[in-house]
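task queued by scheduler; priority normal; single chain, no ligands, no partner chains; default sampling; output format set to structure tokens
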Amino acid sequence: MAMRKFFSEIKGMKVKDVPAHVKPMVTTSNAKNFIQRALDNYHAKYIQTDSIVPLYHVCFGGMIFSYLVALPEERRHLEHQQHAKEHAH
């Protein structure tokens, strides 16, 4: 609902006017309130209901994080392989 309200507010604006409209909304207190509400909703939806979904979130999040951490090394390795192939011929 909040996104629908926000989009209806900026619907008729010019693109250069949008940052001036959004800037007062982006404050540290608003960010803290947003994060707190999100954590409260997550707790109510998954933790208090004894759901297994948080375990899935941790597992898949760990897999994604480890992939992203290893990605630069893998790219360097593949680039080195490609470079070696080019010089082998």
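post-processing summary
- The helical segments are 2-10, 18-22, 28-47, 53-88.
- The mean pLDDT is 92.
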